[in-house]
Amino acid sequence: MKPKTKALLFNFVAFMSLFLLFRFTLGYLIPVSGLWLSLICAVITSVIVPKFGVVNEGGKEKIVMKTFFDNGREV
To answer: Is there a domain that residue 75 lies in?
Structure first.
């Protein structure tokens, strides 16, 4: 599997897992309708979720993860 494909899958899995965590947690804690709850959780997740990308270093592609708190590190 190519590194770009892995990075895309990592992005999807990270977003999906954090979105569902926030969706069920906030849905349990605050009484908000479905659409507004989904939008709030999507915005929170978009800010916090780690972003994965591919960097070409010395002719070799590497997957790098960037978080809200960190600039980037190799995966």
So the answer is: no
- Cα-based angle 24, 50, 3 (whole degrees, multiple of 5): 120
Please say whether the beta carbons of 44 and 19 come within 8 A.
Answer: no
Q: Please tell me the predicted confidence (pLDDT) of residue 72.
A: 64
For residues 29 and 37, give the distance between their C-alpha atoms in angstroms, rounded to a whole number. 11
Cα gap 14→4, rounded to integer Å = 15
Interval 63-72: pLDDT, tens: 988 888 777 6
Average pLDDT over residues 45-53: 93
Q: What is the pTM of this model?
A: 0.84
48 phi/psi in degrees, rounded to 5: -90, -30
How many domains are contained in the chain? 1
